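Researcher: I'd like a structural prediction for the single chain below. Treat it as a standalone chain; there are no partners to consider.
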Amino acid sequence: MNLKIFSQWTVALPVLSVAALVLTWGRDLPPPLVVVVALLLGGAVLAAVHHAEVVAHRVGEPYGSLILAVAVTVIEVALIVTLMISGGEKSQSLARDTVFAAVMITVNGILGISLLVGAVRRRIAVFNPEGTGGALATVAAIATLSLVLPTFTTSRPGPQFSPAQLGFAAVVSLGLYLLFVGVQTRRHRDYFMPITTEGEVIDSEEHLEPPSGRTALNSLGLLLLALVAVVGLAKGISPSIESGVASAGLPHSVVGVVIALLVLLPETIAAVRAAARDRMQTSLNLALGSAMASIGLTIPAIAAAMIWLEGPLLLGLGGTQMVLLVLTFVVGTLTVVPGRANILQGGLHLGLLAVFLFLAASP
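Model: Treating it as a single chain, here is the predicted structure.
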């Protein structure tokens, strides 16, 4: 009965959210209406992850994790572009702030809490080091190319690429992402399948029958509807987010953190639920896949958007941010190489997330 009620809500929320989008589009929203829109936005996010999981369960792993990652990245790209269009000079670094926040939240936050949940449940969280290590290496390569190199290039003043460099970085980032997807879904699919504590591959969810094709198609349609609602409603309340950050005396980069936290909520919920079901590899696929998609798809999309967007695109990280990025990948490498982790590794990553959030608010 509870599942039926929840499913009814996941149908109603996308519809209500789109209706709210139509009624509020292009209008200045008073504070009470902002609260209502924000609640509908959160509901649309939760509905999106539900329908993405239905589709994911139909197609199986690792395709399911890939669908969730791409769906979340579509939200992220749309939010960044809409805010950049209306944000003026302050939005020149929004893409960098959001992508960097997404990497820190996924590689430290989602990965850390997943390891913690898995280790508490089984004492030792077990996963495939070949697949997880390859995913982390791809994230590190794309992040360095897109977020570190612009700080040191000399073709343009400041931490930005020239148009040719931005185009090249976008093509390479997209190429590396597609190469990883090919490895994940075709050539070495078994590296990304959940495994038992004894190392045996879990190729299916024995306790739950896959949904029918019709159910999966319905969920796909509702997923797209929810994504449209999320993008449009976020555009509507973006001035309130920016003014709230400014009135709190926080740096404008916190806007990027808020966006990343919002769009990664579905991935976080899905990853924790997978870890609680002893599907640790699925959790790590979600965490690292989201980090990879956030860079590998967002940077090319933003590069294409810069054709009609005015002003520079600041991508290069500062010194403090680069230190946190390097430390994150060093700790992440030591975490994934053994293929086994306990609560210490989970706590370390969550500690790094706490440092990032503190320094974002107090740089």
